[in-house]
Write a structure and sequence with these properties.
By secondary structure, the chain is of the alpha+beta class. Strand 3 and strand 4 form a beta hairpin. 30% of the residues are buried.
Length: 149
């Protein structure tokens, strides 16, 4: 079963927010490659919840994909930070997913520690120039991250 890493700014949605809510909508993906990964996800697939754009970026826990993808409503909301003026009800290429909480790690696994792990050298997250907010994680990479908890 495929596994993923998805980035969220904790000021918008943190692993602890998701823990409190139980489930939430994952929206705001505005890169076509990342959108394609969102589209290919299946219900029950797991992902690492990564805190980005914060003082200590890193993997904060695990969450699960629930349900099918659907048109991201934030793309058509002029009040949203993720508004895309090129979208309409009949032409919205952006997708959202519902996700549910699985586990919060006792401590965030910092990006520096992930970069220092040889088993993660091929993970797009640690490669220079890669800024995707959604990316696949291989079984070996998944196990390597779990060993860092």
């Amino acid at each position: 079963m495929p596994r993923w890493l998805m980035k969220s700014e904790p000021a918008e949605l943190s692993i602890h927010d998701l823990q409190r809510l139980g489930m939430a909508r994952w929206d705001g993906v505005r890169n076509y490659q990342a959108r394609n990964f969102v589209r290919s996800m299946q219900p029950d697939e797991l992902f690492f919840f990564y805190h980005s754009s914060c003082p200590q970026p890193g993997i904060a826990g695990i969450a699960r994909i629930i349900g099918e993808s659907y048109a991201d409503p934030t793309a058509m909301d002029p009040q949203s930070h993720y508004y895309d003026a090129r979208t309409s009800a009949g032409n919205n290429p952006w997708l959202a997913r519902d996700v549910e909480f699985v586990e919060a790690f006792p401590a965030i696994i910092p990006l520096a520690q992930l970069k220092a792990c040889p088993a993660l050298s091929e993970l797009p997250l640690v490669q220079k120039g890669t800024r995707l907010s959604v990316m696949p994680v291989s079984d070996a990479q998944w196990q390597a991250v779990l060993s860092l908890r």
